[in-house]
Amino acid sequence: MLTKAEITRLRSLREKIHREAAGLFVVEGTKVVGELLAAGFPFLEIYATAEWPVRLAGAGKGSSRSPKAGANPAAIIRVTAAEMARISHFPTPSPALAIGRISREPLPPGVLNGGLSLALDGIQDAGNVGTLLRVADWFAFDRVLLSPDCADLYSQKVINASMGSFARMTVHTVSLADALAGCTAPVLGCDLIGDSVHALPPLRNAVLVIGNEGRGLSPDVAARVTRHVTIPGHGGAESLNAAIAAGIVCDNLRRTLAVAQ
Amino acid sequence: MLTKAEITRLRSLREKIHREAAGLFVVEGTKVVGELLAAGFPFLEIYATAEWPVRLAGAGKGSSRSPKAGANPAAIIRVTAAEMARISHFPTPSPALAIGRISREPLPPGVLNGGLSLALDGIQDAGNVGTLLRVADWFAFDRVLLSPDCADLYSQKVINASMGSFARMTVHTVSLADALAGCTAPVLGCDLIGDSVHALPPLRNAVLVIGNEGRGLSPDVAARVTRHVTIPGHGGAESLNAAIAAGIVCDNLRRTLAVAQ
């Protein structure tokens, strides 16, 4: 039986300000909770109705946010459907609601000089941020950087859209201009004007920056870009969706690396 | 002053069954109405409050659905904000609501043998269908085919997500298995297993088929595919979003054609 205070606490996590204050986030839904458990994400608590089969899943790659893949330490708290309806953020509650700890990982100095990083500069649509985590995961990027004005990594929409990649990718929220200062790896800016993405040389180490859906790259980040790359288009559309553009550049980066091997 | 019957008629168009019966569709919003006018889409009626500046825009590429780019024949009907609130489908009405004619274009025999076609096999998310129209437009594909179980082309969400490409692309709703029977151009199926998209030969004529978000290609369409292509992935994500996968294959098709020229 949940107390009124517990219900209030759980409901409050739908808002970013309360998530930040508590250092906790919430996700709801059998699919997303299952995806994160499968990826080894260490939830603190899982509220579940009798409909939800307790599967102490935990076989996953692990990541910096899921250090102990294989052992799911979450406390399973059985609730009634009526209790779930009170703690749920949705009009149609699901059988599972999970609480995880927010971790903000500092960016180790010099880390951007090695491997492939995807940096998101003011991507405000939560679905786009989640989809971009999935793109970075598909192409085995080493990390994702979010500028502070991106959609909140710990919002349900971002986590849902990432299809589990949230638990597998290492993500840092940082000032991109500061992080890119002194970066010795090429900084590629995806833009409407630049070198064709088909002419990229093989790059083992690089940072790919994707700008805001409407405004593109912010001026202080654009100043750190060492190579603007563009996707040759031929038709009437003015631009491509940010996540599609990122996917195409990532594919070209992987293609040129494979050719060079 | 709108009559009650007019208000009922306009409101009914939010549902596909009423759109089909009337042969009409509705879009709302300054941005989307402006985008379609700019692309030369011949609306029948535009309901506008005093906030909406009448711009008889019409400079666009034109398409089979906008045959008379340059001349916008729409009747502009001024309404009050209160009237707009009654005809709008949204809780927050916009200053412009436009009515257009639904046109279902038959697929001319043999047309798939020439040029590049994008075929969507049961893409059910309206945002994905609209984004895929935008991808086809960016890469100057000649046409888009929708299977009958795709999201409705004339829904507001599809049209919004297309960012104007709805008015520029020629779209046919057809049984894909029937349309692909007898097609002499290569039929590429985007799949998790197949030849690497990086190894595609230059193809001047091809049909690229994108399957349902969860199920992939339907069996009767997969039977018509002459070459399964896959996007090399290296990380933990199980799949890519359908529109991102399509964008990557389109980019590779255009890249190999450019190299061959």
Write a brief structural summary:
Two copies of one chain form a homodimer. With 261 residues, chain A is of the alpha/beta class. Helix content of chain A is 32%, strand content 20%.
Please name the CATH architecture of the largest domain in chain A: 3-Layer(aba) Sandwich
The side-by-side strand order for the widest beta sheet of chain A comes to 7-6-5-9-8-10
* H/E element order of chain A: HHEHEEHEEHEHHEHEEHEH
Can you tell me the CATH superfamily of the largest domain in chain A? SPOUT methyltransferase, trefoil knot domain
* Largest sheet entry of chain A: 6 strands, parallel
Q: What count of structural domains of chain A?
A: 2
CATH level 1 class label of the largest domain in chain A: Alpha Beta
Instruction: Give me the number of helical elements of chain A.
Output: 10
Structural class assignment of chain A: alpha/beta
CATH topology-level fold name of the largest domain in chain A: Alpha/beta knot
Q: Terminal Cα separation of chain A, in Å?
A: 60 Å
How helix-rich are the residues of chain A, as a percent range?
25-40%
Based on Cα principal axes, name the global outline of chain A.
elongated
- Stretches of chain A where pLDDT is under 50 for at least 5 consecutive residues are 57-64, 66-70
Strand content of chain A: 15-25%
Q: Which protein chains make the most extensive interface, counting residues with beta carbons within 8 Å of the other chain's beta carbons?
A: A-B, 39 and 40 residues
Identify the quaternary structure here.
homodimer
Mean pLDDT of chain A: 91
Calculate Rg of chain A over CA atoms: 20 Å
